[in-house]
Write a structure and sequence with these properties.
With 183 residues, this protein is mainly α. It has a domain of 103 residues. 67% of the residues lie in helices and 2% in strands. The protein has eight helices and two strands; from the N terminus they run ααββαααααα. Strands 1-2 form a two-stranded antiparallel ribbon. Helix 3 crosses helix 5, helix 3 packs antiparallel against helix 7 and helix 5 runs antiparallel to helix 8. The longest helix is centred in the last third of the chain and has 35 residues.
Amino acid sequence: MFARYCSATRCASRGMVGRTPEYVGKKIESKEMKMAALALLILPLSILGFAAIASVLPVGVSAIHNPGPHGLSEILYAYTSQTGNNGSAFAGLAGNTVFYNWTGAFAMIIGRILFAIPIMAIAGATVKKKIVPAGAGTLPTDGPLFVALLIGVIIIVGALTFFPAYALGPIIEHLFMLAGKTF
């Protein structure tokens, strides 16, 4: 029934709502959205993926000097720091091992280079597009509504992506402490 009202080419290019979103006068199409989704997935996959590998392999666990839930926090912090910038770590993690040096180097490459590739693809695709005049349904990017929506989306996506893993170590450590067990 839907096909009767919407041809495949028109619906694929305009979306289900009948309007293509635009930013700074340029249409945002499916290619740009796919690249943005890929960029959003690269950093969590690097951080959480390497942390998961280090948490289960004996070579990764053997470098933790504070066993238990605090060790998970140490591993997560190390890969977050390595993916995001220069690679600092908590004092309880022996990060100068072959395993952590290699996985940390790959995390830095992913965070600095692989993350930039989809962003550059978005920029390249956007630069080629012509500027279109703003329509009645255009959300202005210089108002407080856009700022509030942008901050809200960043907080929600960040919280849903990282909060469960980052909260797990301190919450479990606190529960063990209340039960009288320390590590």
